[in-house]
């Protein structure tokens, strides 16, 4: 509702404004109205853009009105606040809403590079005049004019004719500002806050001179010199511009003596123009007129000057606006922004557009109560508090102190330095300066000027510093002690502001160097290098910070964390802060700063850790808490030292450290734990094997339950191993690998421990005899041709307990599960090991991690070898069992009896197929070919057993070879099974040895006898076997021949008895 009323009121004001302007322009108040370009009548002109003030001025003057100029004046003054005459206090309307925009910014805006003269030195960042545009008190037009007026250039002789009167010399004097070159002495300038109003060094210098005149007037030494008539301006200006450094600044004969002459000298030193000097003196005297009993130094100088100096006393409008702004800004800084009294604040009430007199009266009503607030026990009216608030007073006083230097020879003090310093004491009352502030500021000015002139290479320097040795020594000794105290605990004093610390380090280094330059001090003090000084700061501050950290840790109530672990974490945070915030500053003067701090922290924490390490014997919760934290801290410290030292000096630095040996102690404890856990695993393996029934867990999981239990306990142990967050090396990992590897080897050996040898399943080979029914002949048979087993062994083989085929298949599946999961277990262990934060190898280790003991492959080779050997043995046993045990009667005993054509191999294909289906129904797919190959091998062994060692009841003729060939082909195709069985190549390779024996059966007995004679040594001169057979094979084939030729040869040559059947 209020917004609608405000909008309606604004529209009414605009309408009334247009009606009023139309009346004034259409009537007879103005002689002539000149239309702007493009306009014919007033209807073509936007009256909202016509300046009312401009029109009223034309009405008062009775002159001609140019609407184009009125429009231009309106736009030029748009940014100015509009004034109302509704009260005694100033008020203006803002374009924006304060409640939504917030308070104006207190900080100064970024400086704009303008053509301004360089100051002598910059006590604070100089705010450019462009920032004044942000002020609440002045419009942008005035600021633009002010900026243009200050962008001056160097004067030449050609410019002399442009000056008309004495007041123009003010412009010349303003050009002759400080021409001192900038230098690095800005590092010595205290970082005082900037002024929110944007006042410059020139403003401070001019105001400081006004304060000086007011204080001089309090003692009756202020007079107004008569203004000289216009003379030879060219010669006077040439004297100003042509003054060289070789000339003396001013001779006493040219000026009056006493206070008047001293003030004149200081005016020249502070580069104040004569016109400004005269205006200020006259204004101060006029302000004091009528104030009986009032001292001039108790006046509110800027306010009185604003009241007593009018626009007519300035040569142009721009100079007056600049001067007026300076006085107002100084009032704002002295009474509000940097007031010595801070208990209360005054805010202006509503005021309208008033004339200059009423504005000044309103300003006086606000400023005087602010300035006369009592402080420091003074009485009202005794002191005017307008320039004694920190840091405005210090900045003003430094401008006064700069007048002790010769303006033409900056390395020298003026001859009147003592008188100047004595005169400046009169300003202490106004500026709130004490003796301590005076000496501190004066010493600071002297040192900075000394540094500036030294850097410029001026051979005439040091005069000023030499005359102030006592002040400098006292001041800088105090500064050195203060800086040393601050830096002695920089972790506490500069925790939030490292930039301040950088300045304090600079102060500490410079003060120490300056004090050491004094000959007397040099004899009393040891010449300590900067690096040693920085090292002492680091040592002191680290110890203080460590002590505070101990107190913090003691107060923490953490039940899960050991105090040493908490201390390590806090110290690590301290080091991180040290390396990121403080080290960049300290390393500028000591490159080994981080080495010093890190080494000291390592030592301090080591002293606390050593008793704990000495009492550690087993892995406890405290050990698991402390060891990782301590080791992480040590590794971080080593990383910091390495980053600072590089690879060259790192070993030297490490040798100076007493390492915690965390890894060594931790490794011993971990190995004790690992050994105890491995013993527990072996116990579980024994129990699992004893409880195993070798039955499949499920149709999908066709392995035994014991291997699952073994893996469960192994994985639990591995999980516990990696849950130990203590430091460990490859030795502990290898120890665990060896223990797990041994557990699986024990398991594999337990599986086949009770398995009989496959030879026990094979029936004994019959004694060789001749296949003829003749009387028994006592024959001599060679040792290698007879069965060497005793009858007791034969009985034992018959009575042994042979596992069922299904049991053997479950065992095979279990072993395969063990070896397949072993790969996963190994990969998991390595992945988790590599995922652990790798320990930095800063110190050479005794173990070469590239050795064979630390390869990521082959860690379970022992287990793999034993498990594969167990699988092979069970496969061979299974094949032998099926052929020689389960199919013994149809295969071994009845095949080819009594003759080959009467009992073919086809008869045993069906029972063999039944056994094979049972195998494939239980065995896992990866082992199928392996077990079937063993069955094929056993089948061929049985076939060869029949045709070579078939006993006295079997005989073979050369004509049977074709039948045998057909039978072996049937056996081959059975195992190939049309491509669903074994690969054809594998089967062919196994069948090849049987084909060779069948081929020998196809030879006549005479050929076999001839070949046997050749290989048995009867006819050695003929060479080896022509048929490619050995003696036992040929002999066994002849024993199974039914012809007399073979019988007679065996009887005569080998004494083989005749068969009883």
Automatic annotation (TrEMBL):
Domain spans labelled MHD1: 624-765
Residues forming coiled coils: none
A Pfam family assignment: TPR_PATROL1
Domain of life: Eukaryota
Residue ranges constituting the MHD2 domain according to the UniProt record: 902-1012
Protein name: Protein unc-13 homolog
Organism field: Salix suchowensis
């Amino acid at each position: 509702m209020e917004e609608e009323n405000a909008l309606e009121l604004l529209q009414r004001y605009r309408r009334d404004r247009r009606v009023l302007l139309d009346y004034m322009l259409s009537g007879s108040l103005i002689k002539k109205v000149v239309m702007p370009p493009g306009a014919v009548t007033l209807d073509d002109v936007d009256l909202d853009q016509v300046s009312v003030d401009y029109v009223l001025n034309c009405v008062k003057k009775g002159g001609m009105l140019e609407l184009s100029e009125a429009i231009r004046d309106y736009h030029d003054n748009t940014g100015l606040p509009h004034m109302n005459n509704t009260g005694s206090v100033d008020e203006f309307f803002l374009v924006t809403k304060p409640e939504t925009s917030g308070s104006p910014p207190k900080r100064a805006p970024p400086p704009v590079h303008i053509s301004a003269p360089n100051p002598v030195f910059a006590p604070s960042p100089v705010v450019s005049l462009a920032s004044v545009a942000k002020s609440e008190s002045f419009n942008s037009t005035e600021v633009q004019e002010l900026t243009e007026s200050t962008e001056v250039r160097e004067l030449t002789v050609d410019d002399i004719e442009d000056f008309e009167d004495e007041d123009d010399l003010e412009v010349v004097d303003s050009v002759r500002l400080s021409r001192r070159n900038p230098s690095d002495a800005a590092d010595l300038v205290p970082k005082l806050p900037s002024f929110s109003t944007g006042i410059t060094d020139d403003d401070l210098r001019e105001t400081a001179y006004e304060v000086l005149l007011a204080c001089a007037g309090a003692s009756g030494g202020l007079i107004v010199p008569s203004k000289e008539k216009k003379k030879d301006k060219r010669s006077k200006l040439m004297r100003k511009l042509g003054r060289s450094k070789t000339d003396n600044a001013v001779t006493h004969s040219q000026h009056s003596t006493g206070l008047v002459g001293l003030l004149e000298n200081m005016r020249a030193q502070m580069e104040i123009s004569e016109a400004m000097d005269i205006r200020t003196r006259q204004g101060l005297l006029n302000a004091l007129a009528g104030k009986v009993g009032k001292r001039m130094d108790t006046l509110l100088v800027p306010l009185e000057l604003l009241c007593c100096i009018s626009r007519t006393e300035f040569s142009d409008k721009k100079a007056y606006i600049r001067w007026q702004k300076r006085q107002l800004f100084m009032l704002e800084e002295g009474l509000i922004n940097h007031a010595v009294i801070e208990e209360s604040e005054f805010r202006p009430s509503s005021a309208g557009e008033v004339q200059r007199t009423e504005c000044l009266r309103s300003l006086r009503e606000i400023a005087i109560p602010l300035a006369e607030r009592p402080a420091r026990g003074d009485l009202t009216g005794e002191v005017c508090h307008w320039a004694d608030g920190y840091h405005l007073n210090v900045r003003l006083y430094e401008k006064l102190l700069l007048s002790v230097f010769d303006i033409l020879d900056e390395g020298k003090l003026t001859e009147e330095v003592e008188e100047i310093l004595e005169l400046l004491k009169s300003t202490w009352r106004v500026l709130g300066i004490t003796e301590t502030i005076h000496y501190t500021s004066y010493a600071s000015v002297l040192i900075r000027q000394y540094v500036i002139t030294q850097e410029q290479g001026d051979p005439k320097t040091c005069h000023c510093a030499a005359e102030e040795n006592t002040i400098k020594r006292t001041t800088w000794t105090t500064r050195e002690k203060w800086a040393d105290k601050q830096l002695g605990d920089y972790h506490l004093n500069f925790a939030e502001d490292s930039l301040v610390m950088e300045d304090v380090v600079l102060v500490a280094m410079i003060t120490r160097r300056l004090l050491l330059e004094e000959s007397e001090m040099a004899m009393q003090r040891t010449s300590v290098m900067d690096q040693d000084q920085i090292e002492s700061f680091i040592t002191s501050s680290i110890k203080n910070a460590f002590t505070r950290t101990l107190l913090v840790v003691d107060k923490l109530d953490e039940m899960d964390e050991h105090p040493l672990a908490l201390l390590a974490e806090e110290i690590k945070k301290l080091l991180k802060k040290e390396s990121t915030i403080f080290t960049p500053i300290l390393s500028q003067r000591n490159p080994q700063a981080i080495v010093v701090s890190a080494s000291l922290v390592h030592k301090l924490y080591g002293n606390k850790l050593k008793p704990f390490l000495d009492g550690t014997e087993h892995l406890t919760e405290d050990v698991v808490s402390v060891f990782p934290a301590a080791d992480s801290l040590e590794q971080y410290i080593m990383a910091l030292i390495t980053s600072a030292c590089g690879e060259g000096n790192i070993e030297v630095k490490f040798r100076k450290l007493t390492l915690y040996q965390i890894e060594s102690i931790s490794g011993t404890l971990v190995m004790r734990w690992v050994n105890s856990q491995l013993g527990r695993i072996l116990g579980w393996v024994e129990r699992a094997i004893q409880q195993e029934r070798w039955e499949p867990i499920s149709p999908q999981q066709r392995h035994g339950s014991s291997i699952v239990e073994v893996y469960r306990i192994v994985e639990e142990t591995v999980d516990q191993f990696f849950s130990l967050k203590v430091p460990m090396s490859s030795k502990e990992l290898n120890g665990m690998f060896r223990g797990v590897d041994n557990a699986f080897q024990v398991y594999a050996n337990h599986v086949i421990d009770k398995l009989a040898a496959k030879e026990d399943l094979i029936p004994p080979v019959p004694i060789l005899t001749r296949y003829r029914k003749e009387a028994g002949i006592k024959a001599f048979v060679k040792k290698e041709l007879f069965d060497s087993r005793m009858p007791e062994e034969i009985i034992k083989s018959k009575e042994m307990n042979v596992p069922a085929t299904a049991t053997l298949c479950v065992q095979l599946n279990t072993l395969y599960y063990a070896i397949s999961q072993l790969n996963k277990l190994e990969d998991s262990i390595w992945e988790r090991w590599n995922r652990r934060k790798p320990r930095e190898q800063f110190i050479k280790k005794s173990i070469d991690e590239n050795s064979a003991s630390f390869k990521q492959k082959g860690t379970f080779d022992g287990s793999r070898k034993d498990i594969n050997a167990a699988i092979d043995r069970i496969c061979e046993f299974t094949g032998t069992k099926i052929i020689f045990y389960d199919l013994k009667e149809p295969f071994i005993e009845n095949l080819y009896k009594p003759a080959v054509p009467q009992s073919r191999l086809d008869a045993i294909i069906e029972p063999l197929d039944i056994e094979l289906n049972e195998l494939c129904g239980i065995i896992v797919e990866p082992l199928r070919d392996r077990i079937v190959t063993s069955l094929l091998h056993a089948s061929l062994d049985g076939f060869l057993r029949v045709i070579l060692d078939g006993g006295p009841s079997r005989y073979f003729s050369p004509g049977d070879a074709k039948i045998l060939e057909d039978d072996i082909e049937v056996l081959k195709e059975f195992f190939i099974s049309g491509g669903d069985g074994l690969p054809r190549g594998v089967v062919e390779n196994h069948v090849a040895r049987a084909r060779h024996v069948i081929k020998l059966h196809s030879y006549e007995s005479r050929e076999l006898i001839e070949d046997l004679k050749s290989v048995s040594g009867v006819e050695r001169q003929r060479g080896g076997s022509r048929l490619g057979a050995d003696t036992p094979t040929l002999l066994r084939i002849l024993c199974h021949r039914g012809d007399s030729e073979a019988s007679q040869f065996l009887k005569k040559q080998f004494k083989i008895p005749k068969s009883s059947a």
